[in-house]
Amino acid sequence: MVQFDFSAISAESVNYYANRTYERAACYGSDFCMELLDQLRELRKDVGQFKLNMVTLRDNLVTELMIEKEKKPVLKTGLAGKKLMNPFNNTL
């Protein structure tokens, strides 16, 4: 008659399923990290484009302000020593 050592079989079964769980968790973690890296690269690209857009907007604004400044005549008061009018908000 053959005797089975059920405690050894039980221990091996637990060990097998534990190892399989670790392997699946490692695979899941690897996939998660790869997806995260892809999204971070995309975010970096988007942030770079946003920065470029902001710099372009700033440069366009500066150019427009300079053009407006050149268009408006600077008003003098006619008196020596007086300040010139500010063409942007009509104050002294």
Q: What attributes characterize this protein structure?
A:
92 residues; 1 helix; mainly alpha
Q: How would you describe this protein?
A:
This protein has 92 residues and is an all-alpha fold. It has one helix and no strands. The model has no long low-confidence stretch (mean pLDDT 85).
Overall body shape? rod-shaped
Order of helices and strands: H
Q: What's the β-strand tally?
A: 0
- Percent helix among the residues? over 70%
Low-pLDDT stretches are: none
Mean pLDDT: 85
Q: How much of the residues is beta strand, in percent?
A: under 5%
Structural class: mainly alpha
Largest sheet: none
From the N-terminal CA to the C-terminal CA, the straight-line distance is 112 Å
Compute the gyration radius: what is it? 37 Å
The helix tally amounts to 1
How is the topology of this model organized?
Blueprint: H1 6-71
Short structural summary:
This protein has one helix at residues 6-71. With 92 residues, the chain is an all-alpha fold.
